[in-house]
Every structure is written in C-alpha cells, then in structure tokens.
Amino acid sequence: MAEQRLSGVGVTPLSGVGTVVWYAPDAELDEPPAPESVDPDAERERFEAARDEAREEIRAERERTAERVGEAEAEVFDAHIQFLEDPQITEGVETAIDEGLPAEHAVTRTFDRFVEQFAEMEGRMAERADDLRDVRDRLVRVLVGGDRVDLSALPEGSVVLAERLTPSDTAQLDPERVAGFATVTGGRTSHAAIFARSLALPAVVGIGDALNDVADGADVVVDGTEGTLVVDPDDETREAAAGGEDVEIRADPVATADGTPIEVAANVGTEADVGPAADRGADGIGLYRTEFLFLDRTSPPDEDEQYTAYRGALEAFPEGRVIVRTLDIGGDKPVEYLDLPDEENPFLGERGIRRSLGPDADLFETQLRALLRAAGDDAGGDLSVMLPLVTTVEEVRKARDVLESVAADLDAEGEEYALPEFGVMIETPAAAFLAADLVEYVEFFSIGTNDLAQYVMAAERGNDRVADLGDYRQPAVLRAIRMTVEATEGTDVWVGMCGEMAGDPDLTELLVGLGLDELSMSAVTVPQVKGAVTETTLADARDVAERALAASTKDQVEDVLTETTQ
Question: C-alpha distances in angstroms, 498 versus 289, 301, 368, 518?
Fold first, then answer.
C-alpha cells in the first residue's frame, strides 16, 4: 500500500515511528431518567462528593506534572481547580439537578454550555474550552464510576491519535513508550503542543477530519518538523524518521563553517527546565522567564529564594551566560496577589517594565538585589539582566538608575555583588525604531519575535484567525530585526534572539545572515539549530538575508527560504 501523508501543524522538530493507538473519551451518557424519579438532595450530595474527589485528583496530577514536566506546564491544573469551584458553573449544575437531571447529566449540560462559549472566542481564550472539557470529563467519570484510560502504560512504540488531547491526557504520556502523537484539532499554542515540546515528543496537531480515517494499529511516522503524519510509510521514510531521532548533542559552542561563532542558548521558565537545557547542549540560558517564580503562590518570592534560583542556573552553566528577564507580568500573565488592572486590551496596557517602574517598584528592587548578589557569587557562569517590553529611552534610563541605586545599597551593607551585563528586549516597534538611541545605555539586545511579530503586524499572537499575519516571516518583521542589528554596527553591543523564530533550524541561515550573535530557544531544538549553524557559511547566509529583506510579501520570503533548503 502506498504511503499517505496528512498535513497539520508540527510542534516539535522531532520524528517518531510507531503503531497507532486511538484514544477517545468515554462514550456519551444514556438518556436521563424521568425528572420525577430523581432525588435532587441525593444528586447534590453526589455532585459535591465528586467535586471533592476531582479536586484531590487534580492536585495530585498537578504535583506529578510539576515534577516530571515542569512548573510552567503544571499551572494549567490551577485553572482546572478554578473551573471546578466557579460559582457560575456550580450554580448551573445545581439548577439542572433541581430541574430533575442526575448529577452526571447536570454536569454535562452545564459544562457544555460554557465549552461552547469559550470555543467561539479567539486565541488563548478558545483554548480554555479544552480545560473545561477536561474538568467535565473528570467529574462525569467520577460520578459514573468509570475507569480512566492509563496513557502512561501504553505499549512501547505507540503513536497516540485523538480528536484532541486535554492537559491531563498529555501529562500522562511517557516519552519512553510513546513515539509521538497527532490530533484532529489544536495549534502551536495549545496545551498539547506545549506539553509535547516540554516532553520532547514528536507531535503534529490540527490535522483535521482526515485523521479519523487512520485505522487503529496502522504503522505511521509522526514528522514534527514537516508537520505531517505519514500512514503506511515506505522503508525510506521510516529510516529517515528513525535516523532523525539520533540528533548529535554538541556540548561545546559552535561556529559557522567559515568560523563565525554563534551562541545557542535555551529559554527556561523554571528551575526544573535548567537541567534538560544543559543536557541538550545549550551554551547557556538566553531567556530565564522569572515570572514563573511569582506564579501559583499567595505572595511573591523573597530575595533569598530568588537568589537561590538564579544561583542554581549559573551553577548549571559554569562556562556560559545566563540572561534573566526581569518580572514580565500583565498581558496574559496575571498574578492573583498583585493589584493588576482590569484592562480591555492588556497586551497594550500595564505590563513588563511599565509595572516594574510603577506599581511593582518594590518587587523590582528586590529582584535586582537578588540578581546582583547572584552575579557577584562564585557559582560560575556570567549573569545578564534584560528588561521586557521597553518602548522608551526614559524607561531604560530609569531602570539603570534603580540598578545602580540597588548596587549602592548592597555596597553600603557590605554584601557581595557585581553589576551584571545589562540589556533590553526588542519586542515592540518602538524599541526597534529607537535601537540606535538605546545602544548608549545597554550591552546587548535580545529580540523577542513572538511579541515583535504581534505588535509589528497588529495581529494578536494567540488568535488563529490572524496567525498568517502574525508570522515572523513577514517582511515587516524581518526588516525590524535588521533595523535592530544595524543600530549596533560599530558598537560593542551584541544582538540575540529569544523568540520562537530562533528555534526553527530552517531559519538559522537567515538569522545568521541578518547578523544575530546569539539564538535562544526551547531546549528541545538546541541540537538541530547547532547543527544548522555548523552547516552555514557567512557569505551564503548574508545572501539569503539580503534576498529575504528585498521581498515585499511573505510568500516571496518563503520562496527565498525554500530555495536555500533545496
């Protein structure tokens, strides 16, 4: 039988070969009994007992996920508990019970109404529908006494296919047994995609209804680089996929084929991410997202707790650089114990450095104290600090003043400290336009292409309807990157990139040609990008960059990139 290729969205640059195991949620409930036969008091008691049991399950699952996958991924289960305790949902279930429905039918009716509302929204809010489905299915399973499918005990070499995978489904997958997964629905920012990258699992999401025609037990290849699921692969496809799993881990720094060094670092969100980054050969940490130290708690971490976390990162990279981004909250990152404003458009509101120089000034000073102390320690590694969402020169000046004031305080107290390398993120058009002015105050720039593309193209990054506009291969985004690099020419300021664009090995040659000195990404893609760097020559890279910059449409940019990979 000839092989068949189904296209979707590849979410990890990995391939896997295995046998299909279809995963489907429990069958639908039978028709409810006559309302007069239902005892509302008894059903309310069943519902409350099920909520208690589900709550304990979620807490245990959160703890396992934090330990095995990471704290950032585990935070999704906090939202599940919030839904479980949401007054609107609880009242809806109780109302349905009072109308004569058994608890499991009342749960299904109520949650389905909210699922439908969220599914009709845009971007990240639409993904909340999967969280609601997850909580609904858990409650119904507890109420009917059903057994949960143990996805952690699948046969070795399984490729999981599903309509969708909820967070609790994906968290169970064991990379030692599962060769990959593919889903009918989903996108790059879905929970399933995020977990796949954290677990280093080959995955393709959003294939569509064509996936339903793939039979259970079929042989398949999951190609997360090309975004395809190959059914009944031939020997050549199978061997290519199997060979792709043996990516060379390069522990040492790399350079282009003609000797230009390029630093390849990893983005991390928690202390649990640091070890895997080192294991994948990262030269250092190009983005330490410190907001994860502040989430899922009732009060902010104190100075010593932060100092310990930063010191741990430096110890993991004794010869490398660790770039710590100061607290970046607001937008899509709320913190319950802070008085965050209710803004109509939080991505254009009070977030990032705006809060650090405003309502969160005390937190900012505490964080800087911890960072300067860590920089002055002998743990190894070189500490760098960068500011998020910069839009004005005044913000950078004020932040430097705070940094120097904190240093003076530490000096007066007799504390060991050092002034770290200081930089800013280029993730707004304003920062790109002002880059030539900002070089006077910084030692480096780090381009955050996720937000830069969003703001340059006026296309919210979580909104699937404008995903094509918000693509970092848009000519306007490439020109903003080049503008930033040009501003540093003739200075000692270096330029890195910590957005998702940096982790695409097909774009490595282009980025080298644009003049990037450092690339930082999800740890899973570090080996592929290091390999791509070694196969690049500076002259060819600059030629690719010049042709891409001359393009006036995204299609033309893609044509240039396609030519370079053929």
Answer: 11, 25, 21, 9
To which H or E segment does residue 436 belong?
helix 435-438
Check if 80 is active-site: no
> Choosing from 80, 138, 191, 311, which is the catalytic residue?
191
- Of these residues, 9, 498, 519, 557, which one is catalytic? 498
| Stated length of the chain | 566
Cβ(556)–Cβ(470) below 8 Å: no
From its phi and psi, is residue 267 left (phi > 0), alpha (psi between -120 and 50) or beta? Answer: beta
Phi and psi, residue 309, nearest 5°: -65, -45
Cα–Cα nearest to 151, from 272, 62, 24, 8: 24
Cα distance between residue 96 and residue 430, in whole Å = 52
Contact 466, 460 (CB under 8 A): yes
Phi-psi category of 506—alpha, beta or left, where left has phi over 0 and alpha has psi -120 to 50? alpha
| pLDDT tens over the chain, length 566 residues | 678 999 998 888 788 999 999 987 665 788 899 988 999 999 999 999 999 999 998 988 888 787 777 766 777 888 898 889 899 999 999 999 999 999 999 999 999 998 888 777 655 566 678 889 889 989 998 998 876 777 878 899 999 999 888 888 888 888 888 999 999 988 776 778 878 877 888 999 999 999 999 999 999 999 988 899 999 998 888 877 776 555 788 999 999 999 999 999 999 887 778 888 999 899 999 999 998 888 768 899 999 999 999 999 999 999 999 999 999 987 555 677 887 777 778 788 888 999 999 999 999 999 999 999 999 988 778 999 999 999 999 999 999 999 999 999 999 999 999 999 999 999 999 999 999 999 999 999 999 998 999 999 998 876 657 777 888 999 999 999 999 999 999 999 999 999 789 988 889 999 999 999 999 988 888 998 999 999 999 999 999 999 999 999 999 999 999 887 65
Q: Which two tokens stand for residue 22?
A: 């279809």
- Long-range contacts, stretch 483-491, CB < 8 angstroms, 24+ apart: 483/432, 483/433, 483/435, 484/426, 484/431, 484/432, 484/435, 484/445, 484/447, 485/514, 485/515, 485/516, 486/515, 487/435, 487/436, 487/438, 487/439, 488/435, 488/439, 488/445, 491/439
Only one residue has tokens 């899922």, namely 296
Q: Is residue 105 annotated as part of the catalytic site, yes or no? A: no
